[in-house]
Each structure stands twice: as structure tokens, then as C-alpha cells.
């Protein structure tokens, strides 16, 4: 069933599909699974040329045993709120979200920290909470938080109950992240314009730089406009419209 772990038979079907030269989407349709599930399964078990069903099954069993053996106490601010949700299912969803973020290029520990924060109702955890939930060192958490702050995906605030800091994901973190991306595009566009002037617009290299500059500037502008349109539809969302201009 969708959302459940892949079975050994499904893994054999994936291996057979790869051998037959099928694409990930076709394999997923045959299994009635999301393409992202098949993509992640293959990516973390040897890739399309190295995927072996039996090896993938054994690796999954080992990961499951390690997870059960090291499962930490559910800390303050966790996804278990007594509202009928299955904590194990929420934990598995957070793990899959972290895997997806890693597949899309985010550092693995950063993705784990962001996913852990994102599935909490309160949207905030202390460093100690994260260390306990993820079973990692404080230094690993600190480094991941620094990265997320740089991307404007997380902010710090003082814990009302003591001297500790809490790390917070706001409801609008993706708006802020998109605007930060637009700002980076603007900086790249300006740098590319300088390269075009230096190399000369009549040269192939200069023309390439000029085209990159135009594209990056337009892409950044489109991102800002899309974010602003969306935020104006949200109650009280217009206050940040000037961010990124």
C-alpha cells in the first residue's frame, strides 16, 4: 500500500524493471507507488547499475533494527501530541522528508534537522531536543542550524522557560527561502554582467555571460513576484512584501 515500506517482492520487481531498461516512472506505475519512492529506494541502494533486491532488503532490515535500538525518548515539542497520530508513522514521514531533501541536494544532517523541526506542531526545538531525537552530537546540530539560518529556513529565539535557545521554523519559511534565492540570483546576475563587460559582448564568452545575466535577473524577479502574490493572499502577509526587493 502507498506509504508502507517496500516489500522484498517489490524490490525484486524494481530490480527486474531496471534490468529491462524501464524508467523510474514506469516501474513506479507497475508497483502503484510514487515515483519518488522508487527513486529514493534506488538512489540509496547502489543506484540504477548497482541495485540488488536482496542487498536492498537486508540494508532496510539493518536500518530498521538500528532505529529501534537507538530510538530516543520523545522530547518536549515532538510530533506526539496525544491527538491520535501514530508517533512511529510521523517519525517515518520525517525520515522520508529528510531523505528527499538529501536527494535534492541538501546536506543530509541539515535535512534531518529541518525535517525534525518541520513535523512538530510548535515548530521549535532546543539543541538538546534535536540531539536526543536524532541521536547525533551537539556539534552536528549546531553546524546544521548554522546552514539553515544562512538559508533563512530557521531562526533562533530565547526559551521562555530558561536560558536555552530554541530553533524555530515559521509558517513562512519557504517564502523567506525563495526570497533569499532571488537575492542570490540578483548577485549572480550582477557578477555575470561584469563578466560580459570584461570579456566583451561581441565575443562568444561575453555573449554567454550577458545571456546568463539576463536569465538570472528575470528568474529572480519572477520569484519575488510569485512570492509577493502568494503572500498578499495570506492574512497579514503583506508586511514582508518589501523583503528581497
UniProtKB/TrEMBL annotation:
<dbReference type="GO" id="GO:0003700">
    <property type="term" value="F:DNA-binding transcription factor activity"/>
</dbReference>
<feature type="domain" description="Transposase IS30-like HTH">
    <location>
        <begin position="5"/>
        <end position="45"/>
    </location>
</feature>
<dbReference type="InterPro" id="IPR036388">
    <property type="entry name" value="WH-like_DNA-bd_sf"/>
</dbReference>
<dbReference type="InterPro" id="IPR011991">
    <property type="entry name" value="ArsR-like_HTH"/>
</dbReference>
<dbReference type="GO" id="GO:0005829">
    <property type="term" value="C:cytosol"/>
</dbReference>
<dbReference type="GO" id="GO:0004803">
    <property type="term" value="F:transposase activity"/>
</dbReference>
<dbReference type="InterPro" id="IPR000835">
    <property type="entry name" value="HTH_MarR-typ"/>
</dbReference>
<feature type="region of interest" description="Disordered">
    <location>
        <begin position="34"/>
        <end position="87"/>
    </location>
</feature>
<dbReference type="InterPro" id="IPR051917">
    <property type="entry name" value="Transposase-Integrase"/>
</dbReference>
<dbReference type="InterPro" id="IPR025246">
    <property type="entry name" value="IS30-like_HTH"/>
</dbReference>
<dbReference type="Pfam" id="PF12802">
    <property type="entry name" value="MarR_2"/>
</dbReference>
<protein>
    <submittedName>
        <fullName>MarR family transcriptional regulator</fullName>
    </submittedName>
</protein>
<dbReference type="GO" id="GO:0032196">
    <property type="term" value="P:transposition"/>
</dbReference>
<dbReference type="InterPro" id="IPR036390">
    <property type="entry name" value="WH_DNA-bd_sf"/>
</dbReference>
<dbReference type="Pfam" id="PF13936">
    <property type="entry name" value="HTH_38"/>
</dbReference>
<feature type="domain" description="HTH marR-type">
    <location>
        <begin position="104"/>
        <end position="162"/>
    </location>
</feature>
